[in-house]
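Could you help me review a protein record that somebody else here produced? What it holds is a sequence and that sequence's fold in token form. I have pasted the whole thing underneath without changing anything:
=====
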Amino acid sequence: VLLQLQATGRKIVPLAYVNTTLALKAVVGEFGGAVCTSANARTMLAWALEEAGPDGAVLFMPDKHLGRNTGLQLGLGPDDWHVLRLSGKNGLAESERLPGSAAACRRLLLWPGCCAIHGHLRPESVQAARAAYPGCRVLAHPECRPELIGLCDGSGSTSYLIKEAEKAAGEGGTLIIGTETNLVHRLRDRFAGRCRIEPLAPAICPDMAKVTEENLLACLQGVAAGTAPIMTLQDEQLAPARASLTRMLQVCAAQR
């Protein structure tokens, strides 16, 4: 896809969420891009746009909602971004390869993926929360739909949501949080009696639910006993993948 996008003659800078595979990080690093977290996505997207230049574009992967919400923070709008259309093993759909297509013109190109858990949350839930808890504050993770984020009082990474919960504990009131429900429940229990914290809607991640104390202990015991599965990394992927991580660390360090 990157080669097909570059065939238009534009500079394309890839920017990938850090929770992606080694292989993807390697491709991103090879093409001069970087990775980002939900906490530093704004900083890294601003960097990538500058690297691409006024005639180039950023390919944001894999979460289109995080990409659009971050673009909005930087002043971009629907006329600046485009969700790519793919065609199986052929990469871009044929229409995306034509001169003058949105893929050949927009500054922010978005991979058509999203977090199924955050993407499940709907704007109607924000309206319902405000009706159920008058005066509440509503926050959500930026992997939620932009239409939902636009109705909230704030949005940010998991660390942001935790800090806002700590602030609410000192001020009282009701805080509604749109993210994975287990996190919201932990915050609710932690600050019980000091403020009210409720999930925006049920949003359980089955993969995160696998990380239990029992499973973690079994994993560590397997490592200690030498019976844990061994992960083999491809040597040729290590250097470019490391480059994508290093660029993120360098850019963020320069912002401090």
